[in-house]
Amino acid sequence: MFRRFILAALLAGLGGGQALAHARLLHANPKVGSTVMVAPAELQLVFSEAIDPAASKVSVAGPAGPVATGALSLDPRDRKTVHVPLAGRLAPGRYTVRWGMTSVDTHHTDGDFTFKIAP
Question: 3-class DSSP state for residue 79?
Fold first, then answer.
């Protein structure tokens, strides 16, 4: 009887991990920490879980201050990939991308990364 109780408790603990998961950034374009030669027209952020774009946000700041962005959209083939259009041409320098994503299971996570545009 005691062994069954222990086995049931272990199995219940293993199954609960997925329910508590949060979307984490897997990779981005431009790559995290990279230096690019050409200013991007948009950012692509790929997460570990499907994203709810209406409850998510991305901001970008560069050498001249905040960068205007368009509305977030999801890749129609992959709800884990977020597209963020960038308004105007970005000047050379360091850019910080701050993101706050809410996954479709309503868990929210935040993070940031930088990239540089070469002169």
Answer: strand
